[in-house]
Design a protein that fits this description.
Elements (H helix, E strand, L loop, with lengths): L4 H4 L6 H31 L5 H13 L2 H12 L4 H10 L7 H11 L1 H13 L3 H9 L4 H12 L1 H17 L2 H7 L9 H10 L3 H33 L1
Length: about 230
């Protein structure tokens, strides 16, 4: 049930929607970054037939209109889909129009924002560095942990910021997959849209300003962290 703006309080910020957006962004970062590191590393150093098509498929969320991507995710996770049926069998509830469904959609539409900057950082690492570490007897896991990840840190930090900020501000995909259910799928971006539709510019402006400040702070932190990492390598 969607409450009218009057019932929610005109001119009052909806902190529930803001906290839900923050929760969605945090879970997306936690689940997506580790996976993206291994995908990016694989794409950076492996050459095989069809690699260009894999990279193109991962970049699709960057160019597809959010409503188009949201439609395909809605169909792919709906009750008639194998994924939707399997989820409902296991948990007794549909996947779409739930926080879990929105989270799965968030992982998919944020994939290129996480993979691409990390991949570029891995590609900048000289293969001679890895070969020298291997000659010194370091295992692949130790090379990744002690050498590759510290050198790829700027890309990882950039991916963190892009995924977090993009998730907080995402509108089209979240609306298509999750709708606007209070406390479940109504994120800050959807709440801003609802407030504008209700001519509640005070609340819409306050929430927009808050998201703007958070995005700016996140970018500044990322820039400072990557600058320090660059200085440390020099």
């Amino acid at each position: 049930m969607v409450l009218p703006v009057r019932a929610r309080g005109k001119g009052v910020m909806d902190w529930t929607a803001f906290l839900l957006s923050t929760k969605l962004a945090a879970w997306t970062v936690v689940l997506l970054l580790p996976t993206s590191i291994f995908i990016a590393r694989h794409l950076a150093w492996r050459r095989y037939r069809g690699r260009v098509f894999v990279e193109a498929a991962m970049a699709l969320p960057l160019v597809l209109p959010p409503t188009v991507l949201g439609y395909y995710l809605l169909v792919g996770m709906g009750k008639a889909s194998p994924i939707g049926q399997a989820y409902e069998t296991l948990f007794g509830a549909p996947l779409v129009f739930t926080f879990e469904g929105v989270l799965l959609a968030s992982l998919i539409f944020n994939l290129p924002f996480a993979v691409q900057p990390i991949q570029r950082s891995f590609e900048a690492i000289s293969g001679e560095v890895r070969d020298a570490a291997a000659c010194c007897g370091m295992s692949p896991a130790r090379i990744l942990w002690r050498i590759e990840l510290p050198l790829a840190w700027p890309g990882i930090m950039t991916a963190f910021v892009l995924v977090f900020v993009h998730t907080i501000g995402e509108f089209g995909v979240v609306l298509m997959v999750g709708g606007s259910i209070p406390g479940e799928t109504r994120t800050a971006a959807i709440e801003i849209y609802d407030r504008v539709q209700a001519f509640d510019n005070a609340a819409a402006g306050a929430m927009s300003a808050l998201l703007l400040v958070i995005s700016l702070i996140a970018i500044v932190i990322a820039n400072v962290a990557t600058s320090k990492a660059d200085i440390g390598r020099e």
